[in-house]
Structure formats: structure tokens, C-alpha cells
Amino acid sequence: MTRRLPLLLAAVLLSNAAPTTAWSSAQRVTGPSLGQVTKAFESLLRGPSATTVQGFDPALASALQASTAANGGNYPGLLAGTVRVFGAQMAGPGVATVDFGLGDDGFASRFVGTAVAVDGTWHVSWVTVCMLVEDQGTACPPAPAGVVATVPLPYSVTARQQLAGEPAGLVRPEALAAGPDGSLLIVDADRDQVLQRWPDGQLAVFAGTGQPGFSGDGGPARAAQLDLDGQSSLALGPDGAVYIADAGNNRLRRVSPAGTISTVGHYPGVSGVAVSPSGTIYIATGGSVERLGPSGEPTVLACFSFQGSSCPPGRSRGIPKGMGFSPALLAFEGDGDLVVWSNGPRELYRMTPTGALTDLGADYIAGLAPAPDGSVLLAEHGTAVGRVTGGHVEDDFINLVRAKLKGYAPGTCGSFQADGVAATGDGAVFVDTFIGNGWTCDNGLVEVGPNGQGRELAISTPVLVTLPMPGSPGFPIALYPPRRPALGTDLPACPGAQGLEPFTPETVTEALAVAGRFNAFVSSFYGDLRSTDRAWWPSVFDDWVSNFYDNDTHTVVSHGPAFDDLFSAAVAHACGKLLLRDSIVVVVGPSGYSSQVSHLYFLDRRGQPLIYFQDQ
Fold it and tell me: Which of 154, 332, 446, 591 is the most buried (most CB within 10 A)?
């Protein structure tokens, strides 16, 4: 799993247009000094020692050995394959930042570490080795006497930084649809928003406040509450209206070309939606395919009939005997027939306007989209986009494997598992994926041109606009005062000083509970925001993108005063020692989908423990 950046540091680094290695010649470490730095980092393969690693002692050696064993290696082979130093620059007196890569496969694991000058000789900093150790799930030992973590902190470079220079900014991109104005509409289920990407890469909110709920009919779609999930889909009407399957609310919403939102109707289980060329709306409810009348009244066209069901007689035509029918996705072919994907069991169908079904075979589909040539594109739950043309299924119409899609390099997992799909009038195809989607370990959005050339799309996200404002429900103003400017560049902002209190045994206990479930599958993104200080909000999206799919709670490794922690020097440098005086740090170990150790810094604001910094 891709290791995250120190999150408050990440917001600064990723806001720079230039890549992290674009250093001026005046800042570069060159000559014999660069040679020393390179040999020190290469020693991590050959065998680190006190002459190559700052503060190297038996405890750090044991941590290296433990982290290697946890990954099936042999000490000192924590860093398998090769270490390559791409460059170094001075960061302060006796401290240099080092851009380096690990491994043999294109150096997919990329880091920026630090080196320190010890008695005139460059060493790998102790905190850099700790970063690598904790990346493998082993807690780093306390620092030896006289060793302080460097400022700036080391961090890992994500695949997105390497490829695009900035993060995608999407939390959980799922369903896609081509907008009427050349934009791309994206359902972001964990934001409970529909986002709109313009051709220049800018991302705006199309619908939803970001707070889950149901409200806003008759007003601007951006001011309405939605409750989206992985079943929510989109469809475009011939008049330019956009239809949203608001699955969490069991409603179908309509956004007019003027941007006004309304409710078409209440349909329990609604997930798929499609609009015919004549403007007739069809929905999938998980148990049936239904056609909506002018006033939104449903007529069941196809459903699964069993004893005790409400499925009208004759509505199961075409469903193989003994097989269930649970329609989830819909899209129209150019000839007027409807392509239907059933989630239980996973089967693809073609349906006539009268409701007769033809079984097209078993397939695992994550998204459907009408194409300009009259076919329907299939986001196959793998590394390909298929299509249906005239009832004929063509698998691997677009193959997203690195070797077969020129111009696109997937993230560090080496794969891209399709989720949403959309096609524009000029023949371009868009496909997205999200972390936790099968074996995908990085969010991504890809455009494949008519010539088959693929490229990853960078996205600029106005995260401050989409985050809840202090004073909104669940976010009392007293707990989220304005942020303070930070000194230096490690943290973009610092917590405000209002209402800070020393921790009590009760608030320590509460902080431990928050740390154990933070970013775990048992908690929600919105709930996690409530546990974070406002100074951290600009970076929380990056955190969620990198680790939202934990399916287990974390184990607390240790907790104590923040002054004693590995990263306290950088926090003190940016925000002052007084903040650390009233802070605690909770170190949590790996969970079901995260192999890393993380350090969570808490403050107590009026009796509420809030996280304001996380190292990874």
C-alpha cells in the first residue's frame, strides 16, 4: 500500500507547481558531499552502521530486522533490489533533503529523506530510517540521546506526485457521466457530492454540500444535501438535465440545465438510471427495472418473480431458470434497447422497450455508459473496458494494463481496476478507479483518446470549498477557531490557541478511542473530520485518499507526551513548543488494509480531543 506523506506537510508540497526534484543549481549538494550522501543511502542495502546512519544503535538495528522479517526479507534487505539517489539539496545547516528511490521496477517506491552531517561526514538521518521501518509496520524505537528528528521531515512521494505533480483530489470517485457542456461529472461517494471536471483540469462542485442528508429541492444543486454511496449513478437527459440516483435517500434527483435541483420521486433501492433519446426515464431498484411516467409514477418492466414477491406475472421473461435478478446499472444502446447489469448474480442483459430480456452472459461490471456510436461501454471490474454493440459483448475493447495502453503508467500497484466509465461526443473515454477498489492502491482518472492513447488526468480540487464550515451541524465554532500561520514549511497552518486545555485521564481515554478507529472502515469520512482540528482540514482529503479502506480498527502501540515523540521537533519548529506542552501523541499500529505505523498528535480543545498532525 502506498505510504502517505506527513499530511500537513503534504498540502504544502503538493501545492507547488514544480516537482519536488526541481532544485536550483545553487541549492544542490554536489561533488564529494553528494558521493557521501549516495554511499550512506546505498549502505541501507549493504548493512547500515554508525558510520552511515545517524544514531544507529542495537534498537534501530532490531527494528530494521523486524520490519524486514515482516515482509519476508532478510536483514539488511529491508530495501529490496536497488537504492538510487536522484539528487540532494541543502535544507539548513548540516541537513540536506535527498530524493531517492527503492526497488528494481522503475523505482516505484519514491521518497524524500534527509541526510545529516555528523562530524563532517554525511549520514542517513535517523528519522529517515524510522520512516522506512514504520512504513513496514514496525514501530521505531525512541531516539538515542542527542538525536533529534530533522526539519524538514522525510516523506514518501506518492505515485500521483511522480506522474502528475499533484494529487487527484478525489476521495472516492465512482460513477461518471459526460456533461452537456464538455465537462465530466463524477460521483464522489465519500464526499456525498457530484463533482464537475472541466477540460482544463479544474474541479468544481456540481451538486451537494458535502454533508450527507436530504434537503435543497427547489434551490441550487450545490446547496442541496445528498446521500451518495457506491450504488449511486448518473444519467444525462436530452434536454441537458442531469439525473442523480441519490441511493442513500432512496430518491431520484434531477438537476435542471439552470442548476436547480428537484426530486423526481421516492424509489426504495434505486441505483441505476438511464434516459432514452425521447426523454423517458428508466431506473434500477435492485429488484426491478422500472419505467417512469411523466409524473414519476413507476411501471415495472422486468423483475424476479418468486413465491411471495410483488413482481407482476410475465415480468421475468429472459431470466435463466433458477437464476436471480438484481438490476443495478442501466444504459441505452443507440437502437433503443437497454443494457442491464444484475448484481446478484453478476449477469449482463439486454432489454427491449417492452421488458423482454436477453441474457448476454456472466460478467462483473462496475459501470455502464452510452457511447456516441450507439454502443454501451462496460467498466469491467478488472483492467479493461468492454462494450455491447447490437447485443454482442466485446471484452477488452480498451485494455488498461500498462503494456497495452500507451501513455499511461498506473500507480505503484501496477494495475488500474475500472470503476466508473463515460464517453464524450468526440470519442474520448474516461475511466476512474479508487483506493480499495479490488487491488487498486491509488485513486486515478484516465482519458483514452479515439486513437487509443491514454493519459492520466491531473485534477485541481478546491478542498476548502467542499469542507464543512465551523458552525455547521456537528462542527461547533468553539472547537474550530481560525488557523494560525506556521513558521517554516513543514506545516501549512497551526491550530488556534483558543480553548486549549491540558489533557485529563478522561480525554486521554477518548483520544485513544478516536485513534483506534480513525480512518478505519468502521468510521465515516464525515465522522473523522469531526475528530480533526481545523488546521488539518486542507490535508484530510489527501489522508482519506491514501487510506480510506481500512477494514479493521488500529491497535494502539503507545501514547504519551508529544515532547517525547519522533516528529515533535518539526511540529515545534512550525507551531511552537507551547502547543506541544498541551499535546499528546498516540502511536497506532497496522490494521486490516494498512501495513504502517502512524503517529497521531492530539490537542484538547474545551474537553474535545482533536487530531492536528499525522506523520504517515
Answer: 154
